[in-house]
Design a protein that fits this description.
The chain has one helix and five strands; from the N terminus they run ββαβββ.
Amino acid sequence: PKMTTHTVHLNGTRIAIPPGQTLAELLAQLAEPADQVATALNGEFIAKAQRSGTRLAPGDHITVFKAIVGG
């Protein structure tokens, strides 16, 4: 049986993900260091602690960018 995938937009690029994938799983797949990036879903900031509970839906727009650390 063919595996179903959803299409989402990651930093403006269309990618296919498995249904039910979370934001945390996507970051792991991308090999992005979770503590060094900031994430937004459809324009809403998603805190690191919320990523594992944030399921991605078809058509979602995900933005991943390097967090600016300093002070």
